[in-house]
Structures are given as structure tokens and as C-alpha cells.
Amino acid sequence: MAKKSASSDHGRVPSPLAAELPRALDRDQFFLVYQPEIDLQTNAFAGVEALIRWRHPELGVVDPDSFVPQLEASGDIVKVGRWALETACAQGGRWHDKGYRFSVSVNVSSRQVQRDDFADEVDEALVTSRFDPALLVLEFTQRTLSSSATADSLTSLKSLGVRLAVDDFVPGRTALNDLEALSIDIVKIDRTFIASMSTDSTLADQVHAVVKEAKLMHLQVVASGIEDAEQLRRLRLEEVSVGQGFHFSRPHEAADIDRYLEDFAIFSGKPL
Known about the structure:
Elements: H1 21-24, E1 30-39, E2 45-56, E3 60-62, H2 64-74, H3 77-97, E4 103-107, H4 110-113, H5 118-129, E5 136-141, H6 142-145, H7 151-159, E6 163-169, H8 176-181, E7 186-189, H9 191-196, H10 201-216, E8 220-223, H11 229-237, E9 242-243, H12 254-268
Parallel strand pairs: 2-4, 4-5, 5-6, 6-7, 7-8, 8-9
Antiparallel strand pairs: 1-2, 1-9, 2-3
């Protein structure tokens, strides 16, 4: 929902503004941007990841790394996260109505997923928006997945038909077998590994090992933070299925994504 300071916009939140953060949602200052995800093997449009931003009336667009930790600490991430989920599903429903069939990924905090009613909130968002559950991807950090308190919630979410992803995956920190036990569908490799593949053979070997093992386990692998053609070339050789990053597109608001989709269809010749 937040992440990726590399795709953040301006400025950090001065501490005096911390008091304004709890009222930002009621004041309609939060908004979502969407970063495209591309099928690396076919060059087809695969989906988008929803990312939260705060448009402050004086500071402009605020870096999410500045305010999301405060939302987490205060517990306000629960209501903000629910708003982000509902907004992303509603937008996904509108794209459906236009004939597009691609996934929408939403980041979920540990505070959200550990609530007993979280699966009900997801179900309600899907029913209200008429968004296909199979195209909703919920992303969790490795730390969130390591908590025993999340296991039951993940089971409930899978029963809804949504897909589950581990975000910013660091090879060696969590065994892929553990993710399989949690019914994870997608592994998103941390951007630091992608950035260093060309210069660090050890990291490149780790990415290779993760991709190979994930395929054996029928897990989809997504590469985050692709920024140049050489990274893309290496990931294609590794047969990584999906990627996102500035090499393809920065995050955009929904209206700009609509224009991106039109241009993508024209210039790539690929279906959406």
C-alpha cells in the first residue's frame, strides 16, 4: 500500500505535522497511485500495484516512508488500509467495466491481517466493487508472514479466491517451503537484489536459486525495481515471469494509467 521510497514523490514529514496525520483520511488527503507490472516473457500488461500517497495542502505529496510508520505505530493503519483496499478494488472494478483483465496488488500491514474481521473486510470490498477475487493480490512482508497470528487469516483469505504474495522477499531469510505451507502464490524479490545482479555474482546466484526453486513449487516470481535494460535482460534469461520498475513506468494515478494502457496496447501490440 505504501512502499517503495524509490517511487515516492517529495519531502519528509516534519514532526509537528504528526498531529495532522490522523485527520488526513477524513480530509481526503490520501490517494492511490498504481505502478504497472509487465509480463517479462511476453511483454503483456500483467497488472498494477496500488501505493498510497499523502497530498498535504502545504507540503505537496509526502514521502510514504515518512508517514506510514506513524500510521503503523498509532494503529491508524487499520482504517487507512481498509480505505486503500476498498479504493483499489473499486478502481479494479472500473477497469473491469472497461474490458481490462489484469491484477491489482494491495499491500497489507500486520495490524490489518491479524484482525479477526479482516477477511470479512476483503470480502465486502470485493462484493461491493464486483472485482474478480482471482485478480486481487494481497501483499505481505516476510515479518508479517512469520507471525503465527496470521495463519488463520491467510486461510480465510485464500477461501475467498484471492492470491497472496510475499513482498520484498530476501533470499535466505525465509525458506520457500515455509511460504508454500502458508499458501503463498507469489514471491516478489527485493529490489536490492535486482539492482545488484549485474555487479554481484553472489546475489545473482541467490536470485537464480530462488527462481529455480519457486518454479518447482509453482510459485510465481515477480522482480521489483527494474531500472535498466541490463537488469531486464538478466531477469528474462532467468525466466522471471513478471516485473515492475522505472524501466517500464513510474506509479501514476488511475487516469494516467488509463492513458498508459491505451498507449501500451497501441505500441506493444499486446492484449490487455
